[in-house]
Write a structure and sequence with these properties.
- The chain has 262 residues and is mainly α.
- The protein has helices spanning 2-24, 26-45, 53-77, 80-87, 89-95, 100-134, 139-165, 168-183, 185-194, 199-210, 220-224, 231-258.
- The chain has one domain (2-258).
- The chain has twelve helices and no strands.
- Helix 3 (53-77) packs antiparallel against helix 6, helix 6 runs antiparallel to helix 7 and helix 7 (139-165) packs across helix 8 (168-183).
Length: 262
């Protein structure tokens, strides 16, 4: 029990340190300023679209929260481990009684805390603007923000994985590919079925199965048009995200433990 609590304490210490570090990062401040500008622009553009003001504001706001969160997850997450290796501060940390797995999980947890703080601030601003404009907001918007948080947590897991095996530039590139392909996974599978039998078709099919299906977390259209978002959708996406994140972070820990840091 003491061993488990000690590991949790060390992991949490890394997570809180990462949170403080990323909050001080200019990227975090810029993302919040940019979010405020985007949401304000949505109010300015709203009156220009006759009869569609409400939907434009909600759609634009949700897209802004998701897009800015993705940029934060990609460009901050992929540099977390690499930056400490380059600065050699990681050697000081690992010289203490902390394992590589605890360190990496702590880094990921700190990145998720940063994303949650970012989403919380942007989401609160967005809901305030919607309430100001419409007089109320639907529960579907909360559900959309909730699933966006899970999507960002999954993307952050890949950014941490790629930060272990590549440079920040390549890590960001690969993570963005996962994000784009994750939203096209159903189309990729449909395309694979159109290919002739052979190794190429098998490769494309397996890639569609291995990539995360990020459309599970995309209920923005349903929220904007007032369609009900059932508990089965929320629960299924939550379980799917948790299992996929566990698999990706586990792989990242295995690779990091084998990584030569000299």
């Amino acid at each position: 029990m003491k061993s488990w609590s000690g590991r949790a304490s060390r992991t949490w210490a890394v997570a809180t340190h990462t949170l403080r570090e990323t909050v001080r990062d200019r990227v975090f401040a810029v993302s919040l300023i940019f979010a405020a500008l985007l949401l304000t622009v949505s109010l300015v553009l709203g009156p220009l679209v006759a009869g569609q003001q409400d939907k434009l504001i909600q759609d634009f706001g949700l897209a802004s929260i998701s897009g800015i969160g993705i940029m934060l997850a990609v460009f901050v997450g992929t540099s977390l481990v690499y930056r400490e290796v380059e600065r050699r501060t990681i050697y000081t940390l690992l010289a203490r009684p902390i394992g590589r797995g605890e360190y990496l999980i702590g880094k990921y947890a700190g990145m998720v805390l940063t994303l949650l703080l970012n989403i919380g601030l942007m989401g609160s601003l967005f809901l305030l603007l919607v309430h100001f404009h419409l007089g109320a907001f639907s529960p579907g918007l909360l559900a959309a923000i909730y699933l966006t948080a899970w999507e960002l947590a999954l993307v952050a897991a890949f950014s941490i994985l790629f930060s272990v095996v590549s440079s920040p530039f390549l890590g960001a590139f690969f993570t963005l590919i996962v994000f784009v392909m994750g939203h096209l996974s159903r189309d990729i599978l449909y395309f694979a079925k159109m290919l002739p039998e052979g190794a190429g078709r098998t490769l494309v099919e397996w890639s569609s199965y291995l990539l995360p299906n990020l459309e599970y977390f995309n209920v923005k259209g349903m929220a904007v048009y007032g369609k009900p978002i059932s508990s089965s959708i929320l629960g299924g996406a939550t379980v799917y995200g948790a299992l996929y994140i566990t698999a990706v972070i586990s792989l990242a820990v295995i690779l990091f433990q084998r990584k030569d840091l000299k």
